[in-house]
User: What shape does this take?
Amino acid sequence: MSKRRLEAFSDGVIAILITIMVLELRTPHGTSWDALREDVPVLLAYVLSFANLGIYWNNHHHMLAAVSRVSGAALWANLHLLFWLSLIPFATAWMSENHLPPVPVAAYGMVLLAAAIAYYLLQGRLLSIAGKHSLLASAIGTDAKGKASPIMYCVGIGLSFVSQWLGLAVYIAVALMWLIPDPRVERTLAAQRDDGGKSST
Amino acid sequence: MSKRRLEAFSDGVIAILITIMVLELRTPHGTSWDALREDVPVLLAYVLSFANLGIYWNNHHHMLAAVSRVSGAALWANLHLLFWLSLIPFATAWMSENHLPPVPVAAYGMVLLAAAIAYYLLQGRLLSIAGKHSLLASAIGTDAKGKASPIMYCVGIGLSFVSQWLGLAVYIAVALMWLIPDPRVERTLAAQRDDGGKSST
Amino acid sequence: MSKRRLEAFSDGVIAILITIMVLELRTPHGTSWDALREDVPVLLAYVLSFANLGIYWNNHHHMLAAVSRVSGAALWANLHLLFWLSLIPFATAWMSENHLPPVPVAAYGMVLLAAAIAYYLLQGRLLSIAGKHSLLASAIGTDAKGKASPIMYCVGIGLSFVSQWLGLAVYIAVALMWLIPDPRVERTLAAQRDDGGKSST
Amino acid sequence: MSKRRLEAFSDGVIAILITIMVLELRTPHGTSWDALREDVPVLLAYVLSFANLGIYWNNHHHMLAAVSRVSGAALWANLHLLFWLSLIPFATAWMSENHLPPVPVAAYGMVLLAAAIAYYLLQGRLLSIAGKHSLLASAIGTDAKGKASPIMYCVGIGLSFVSQWLGLAVYIAVALMWLIPDPRVERTLAAQRDDGGKSST
Assistant: This one.
């Protein structure tokens, strides 16, 4: 089964999610810089969610580039991932409309946790198609970041009941961990390209 | 006529429909878990509609993968399907804003019924292009699910006037029937791929 | 210059326009069929705009299928068309929120008129690239529909000041004129395909 | 790394941004032409933002057409650009809801400035992959417009505190500067095509 439409549909959904959050950015009440300052927590929450969705798109892009076909089960695993990602704007809005109180910050972390697990399940589906000695398997390697993320989200959710700022700090730390580029995948893909692998385009 | 843009446009519309429903998910009034609990019927309706749109995208993907060209009539049949799918967010909102009362639950079933009929018409259009001995015809087979769905929706619409929960139970049953993967189509497609059919990509 | 991204971008914009109109479909006030009845003019306006955008997408699809390359000027002509199409949801909302009064009905017709002119300009751009003896030129032919539409829209705009129902009747007539499939384009494309023209895919 | 999904994702995000602004176009209060007249500043702001996003899409299209591969760093530079573009609807809404007061007009210019810088950074990333003697390098040339734009935006931001109309005039001047087609890029691309460069499709 071709991976083209799975990529196109995921691109569409993530592109919409990353942009509809701007509809939540309410126009400030007033025309002064002070009026804008009240929107600062909302804008920060938007930046965090934009970064998280950008990371998912980026990783999705890399992961799909390393496989050549998908299965029906992978389509469902992908829709499951998109479902949890689709709740990010909702969780962002709840968190930011109320100036970042503890319960919505914890709920935001739970959505990120569910998305991380859904991504892990999708990766497993794709690995079972591609095989243990595939390009995908070598690109993923030990998957240290993928395993650390859910644990860190659990810590963040717990800490957000102590102080929401601690919880948010952990979520930001996870995002920064992913934003730092991972040289392994690109090196593996570059090596493959040099071997003449034109089929991955 | 190439099927590429029909796929791209359908992907776009379904991707938007599946995500704009989150704009209906109103931010809870308050920052406690209790505030979130009031949103539970809304969230459940969202899950059901997300699943239904996901099923349509998935089936659309499979059906189009089995044909190699489309006609002008198929473009219109596809737009007709997209029209009814586009009413799912509206029906979901009516149903969920009012905590699932009978009439909106029946109206939701009618939209699903119309979409199922539109899908059936599109399938007929594509079959008439592909022919009786085509890959598509063998992939569809007796089309038991496709024939059972409209009947079940009619039953669900009727039952929702007795009790909305009975109506919803039928709609959920139809969704679950489709969520269980159908091994036939993938087997047929896999068989074709082994025969060297590269043109379907 | 490749036409692929022009098609993809246009597909994206039209797909979004055709679906965001459902966000204007306000949830009925109440849970009875009577509550839904108040939405009937809104739903009818939605159907008309859905049909118009569907027609534009369909014609755009056919027109681009008949050319093999685009120019920078064609990109701008395409953005100009998309601009007027993007005002359709706005005009639809103004017309339908107020139960179809004369001035908004006339304004709706003006947006359709501007879109028809923009489409004509885009067609001219593409024709000047493709040449008088091109596939596109023979597919367009005398362009009777394309020339009749702006005139009919002008008539409809004028009539909507007499009675909005007359104006709407003309707009509906134009849409029906286009919804009837045009056998020429498909015949021309089919003829080309039989000649072995694989490059149009 | 293939550039296809980067193009598709960017197309999706820009297509959504350019269209969700119409959701901000509030239905006029009333059904007369006077009611529409109150929306004129909103409509003008919409036209300016539509033009700006159209220019970015157009330039993005040209730039990506001139490269054959992208890197992970280019993906992030692209997401950075999309982030600033995503704030254009927000800045447009703030500016237009309040009938173009100075501070929101300055803020609008700052978003345009940040987007221009982000575009410059993305261009630098792509140049470092393509090399100094690449098609991209010759297409960009001295990049006079790219260098003039940020300076003009700074001037516009400053002038908007003197009078918002002066600031807006500068922003409009930048847009007009870009709307005038640049013959160099197309000439370079056309020259390459004549050399038989089919790989850029």
Summary: The mean pLDDT of chain D is 85.
